[in-house]
């Protein structure tokens, strides 16, 4: 990889990592509800889980979708259902809690596993491999891409959690916190619009 290509990729990695999406929406909510320290496993899970996804795409797992297109649909709709469930959980985070129902931040494994059903993560990973990984010395370049994405993504994750932490004072009111969590849940659901549009199109084709 040339210095110019590396610079272009780092810019791509930063923009794709810092812009709103399912991960960043949940990190912002986690920062508000649990603080920075409790959200560290969540941040680390995203960073490492996504790095594994990028590496896997570079090693050829993305070609499975070309061989079995139905696998892509299964992953897409399963991910949408899971994200809808997460939105419901986020919306309830600010509600009064009983002794046995206190919400908890994402664990490392939960955050890492979420990358495999996160549509934006797949787009980012496949885009990085397809557009920024030269064929000459491909395996080495995949490792470089994975490392650069990890180094770029980590501060982006932290910035969203830190922003949430800064909002905690303003959201100290239970009513404001509840409204914030509902807004975050709606944003997470809004990110599912492309998936839902595809589902409506598929249903229309089946009924026609």
UniProtKB/TrEMBL annotation:
Keyword Transmembrane helix among record annotations: yes
InterPro entries: LeuE-type
Chief location category: membrane
Membrane keyword on record: yes
Bilayer-spanning residue ranges: 6-32, 44-68, 138-163, 175-196
Membrane topology value: Multi-pass membrane protein
Subcellular compartments: Cell membrane
Keywords: Cell membrane, Membrane, Transmembrane, Transmembrane helix
Protein's UniProt name: LysE family translocator
């Amino acid at each position: 990889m040339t210095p110019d290509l590396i610079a272009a990729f780092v810019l791509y990695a930063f923009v794709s990592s810092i812009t709103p999406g399912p991960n960043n929406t949940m990190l912002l909510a986690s920062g508000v509800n649990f603080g920075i320290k409790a959200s560290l496993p969540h941040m680390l899970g995203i960073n490492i889980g996504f790095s594994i996804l990028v590496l896997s795409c570079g090693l050829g797992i993305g070609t499975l979708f070309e061989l079995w297109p139905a696998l892509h649909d299964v992953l897409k709709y399963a991910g949408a259902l899971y994200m809808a469930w997460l939105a419901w959980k986020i919306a309830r985070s600010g509600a009064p809690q009983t002794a046995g129902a206190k919400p908890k931040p994402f664990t490392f494994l939960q955050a890492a596993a979420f990358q495999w059903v996160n549509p934006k993560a797949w787009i980012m990973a496949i885009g990085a491999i397809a557009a920024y990984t030269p064929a000459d010395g491909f395996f080495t370049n995949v490792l470089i891409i994975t490392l650069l994405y990890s180094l770029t993504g980590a501060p982006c994750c932290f910035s969203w959690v830190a922003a949430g932490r800064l909002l905690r004072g303003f959201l100290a009111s239970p009513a404001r916190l509840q409204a914030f969590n509902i807004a975050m849940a709606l944003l997470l659901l809004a990110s599912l619009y492309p998936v839902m549009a595809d589902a409506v199109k598929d249903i229309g084709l089946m009924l026609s």
